[in-house]
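Figure 2 data, in text form.
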Amino acid sequence: VIGAGSKLDNLIQIGHNVRIGKNCLIAAQTGIAGSTHLGDFCLVGGQVGIAQHLKIGDRVQIAAKSGVMTHLAAGGRYGGTPAIPITQFHRQTISQRRTAAARERTQGDPVK
């Protein structure tokens, strides 16, 4: 069931018994597995995968290329695989870049 006012881009796979709330936006190449319920006013970025039997709360935002494997609370912003709160995702990304930069300064570029 797709709620009123929802907009779906191309190349979206929607599994059996999925319910999409009203006024949701879902970008291209997203897959939603069976029996998942998206709340109202959700924003889903491109190439997102959502596992089966999950409840995604109202007004949830999911960043592109994320993997949703657990229920998501209403009003949250999530990213990464597995999807975590977006601020935590950004902190992890920054930490990885800093670690790689420090390694390059001490050991040189491992790709060369």
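Caption note: DSSP finds one helix and 13 strands in the chain.
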